[in-house]
Design brief:
Keywords: Cell membrane, Glycosyltransferase, Membrane, Transferase, Transmembrane, Transmembrane helix. This protein is of the alpha/beta class. It folds into 2 domains: 2-381, no CATH class; 394-506, D-Maltodextrin-Binding Protein, domain 2, CATH 3.40.190. The protein is built from 23 helices and 5 strands. It has a 5-stranded mixed β-sheet with strand order 2-1-3-5-4, sandwiched between helices. The radius of gyration is 26 Å and the shape is globular. The N and C termini lie far apart (92 Å).
Length: 507
């Protein structure tokens, strides 16, 4: 009895430690990395939907499912800073992913040691750290993918109606979040690897599984059908083909882009997981035949969507493979547990752990403390830090506008009508009646009559983000903000100052 209590005390302390490390790693310097284009879009949508019920499906305007923005609408009710509110949705999603990783690894391998190692790998992975701290769909995508797999494993082992109903709900919620949520439904037959074909009445039990899966599938589609309440439902299909080739397009060139896509996807996967973790994730299939079905299930849950994306992907980003990488973390923990069992606390064992974790910890440090130098893949570093989609300068511009608006009415014209500008300005000036935000695209070679009239009446500013060679407007330079490490890409703020001739023309 005393040993039992001691065991549970250790487990409780481990859970508390994991929770503390998660909170610190995900919340410390949460806004150190500036807002970037996609975050600004999703947050602005959520602001609009939270204030006007008729716009709750606003994300469908751009062909994106609304669940992420719906959750953010709730957070915006209680959190003043919209960027913090948006990123906290992903932080919360990461909590559920962490729990799902623990439960899934325990269900598959019946080892608390492996489960805690899996949790540690989740905490330390630069891949999860980056996306658990951004106001993007993808951390929530990973959450639903993990829970779908966990419940599907329970269903194939226990064949219960309540599990089928829960699976239907999590499948439906995942589909309401992003189109990749459908992959969990398509992958359900893979879980038959864990079906016990040795028990009696296997035919009857198999038909029961089929029936339960049909129940889950029908329920998930019933949940997804609520999107048809919006006349913009068809936009989802139109948006999907922007990123994914349709079958009719793919069949004309089935393998033309696959090799190039695979090269890019593997580069992102290895970069984010780090070479040591990726390498050890490939070891479990070779080290022993025990529980090989469970290991094959995890490999298939990674590689099948991975190859499908490589085959059909038209426009790819690293975040698309976040949910696919989660099974590899479980497999890596299995290999690490195997090494630890054989090396113990020897010098060799500690050296192996150092080799495995130091690259992740190194990347994590810079992601949290100094993202300018974080070793991210080029695609993400460009978007988040070093190019025009990143929001360096946005906080300073908003503070400047807020200060100026205390003494007079202010107008600001932004280069862009959708995306980082004007949304990153609108989301902070939403309740400021003295600041009027106007988007421009394209920026005209000379200020319009409306801009000049505003400039004559009150302080009027123009904010350039994409254009580096600004047009010859009559304006006064206010400030510029470098994009990350690139000195050639800057956000620039000017005040419009009409010439006497322009002023007299207006009169």
């Amino acid at each position: 009895m005393a040993r039992f209590k001691q065991l549970w005390v250790k487990i409780l302390l481990a859970i508390i430690a994991l929770a503390c490390v998660y909170a610190i790693s995900r919340l410390w310097n949460l806004t150190k990395l500036p807002i970037f284009t996609d975050e600004a879009i999703y947050i602005r949508w959520s602001q609009i939907g939270s204030r006007d019920a008729s716009w709750r499906y606003i994300s469908l305007v751009d062909g994106k499912q609304p669940l992420f923005t719906w959750i953010m609408m709730v957070f915006l009710r209680f959190i003043r800073d919209p960027l913090v509110a948006g990123r906290l949705v992903s932080v919360a999603a990461g909590v559920f992913s962490l729990v799902a990783m623990w439960l899934l690894s325990f269900e598959l391998f019946k080892s608390k040691k492996i489960s805690f190692l899996t949790s540690i790998l989740y905490l330390a992975s630069p891949f999860t750290l980056v996306y658990d701290r951004l106001a993007l769909y993808d951390s929530l995508v990973s959450t639903f993918s993990l829970w779908n797999l966990y419940i599907a494993v329970l269903l194939v082992r226990h064949l219960r109606l309540d599990l089928a109903l829960i699976l239907g709900m999590t499948l439906g919620a995942g589909m309401l979040n992003k189109s990749s949520g459908f992959l969990s439904l398509y992958m359900l037959p893979v879980t038959l690897l864990l079906f016990d074909w040795q028990k009696k009445h296997k035919g009857e039990r198999f038909l029961r599984w089929v029936g339960l899966v049909i129940v889950a599938a029908v329920l998930s589609q019933g949940i997804y059908t609520i999107l048809r309440l919006s006349p913009l439902y068809a936009m989802i299909g139109q948006k999907d083909v922007v990123f994914i080739y349709s079958f009719h397009e793919w069949i004309r060139h089935p393998f033309t882009f696959m090799v190039g896509n695979l090269r890019g996807l593997f580069d992102w996967l290895i970069h984010y997981l780090t070479w040591p973790i990726f390498a050890v994730s490939l070891i479990p299939i070779a080290i022993c035949r025990k529980l090989y079905k469970e290991k094959i299930l995890l490999y298939l849950w990674w590689i099948v969507p991975f190859l499908a994306l490589a085959s059909f992907g038209r426009v790819l980003y690293p975040r698309f493979i976040l949910f696919m990488a989660m099974p590899l973390l479980i497999l890596a923990s299995l290999a690490i547990a195997w090494f630890m069992k054989r090396t113990g606390r020897s010098v060799l064992g500690l050296a192996i752990l150092g080799i495995l974790f130091i690259p992740s910890i190194y990347a994590d440090y810079f992601i949290i403390m100094n993202p300018l130098y974080a070793p991210l893949p080029f695609s993400d570093k460009s978007q988040l830090i070093d190019d025009w989609p990143s929001g360096w300068g946005v906080p300073e511009v908003n503070r400047f506008l807020t200060e100026q608006s205390k003494s007079s009415k202010v107008s600001i014209y932004t280069e862009g009508t959708f995306g980082l500008l004007p949304y990153a300005i609108e989301m902070y000036q939403l309740d400021n009646p003295n600041v009027k935000v106007h988007g421009l695209w394209p920026v005209p070679p000379q200020p319009t009559v409306q801009i000049l009239e505003d400039a004559v009446d009150h302080p009027t500013y123009i904010l350039f983000n994409l254009t580096q060679a600004v047009p010859p407007w009559p304006m006064q330079f206010i400030a510029e903000y470098q994009k990350g490490n690139r000195k050639d890409v800057k956000m620039r703020l000017f005040r419009v100052v009409p010439t006497q001739k322009q002023t007299s023309t207006l009169k």
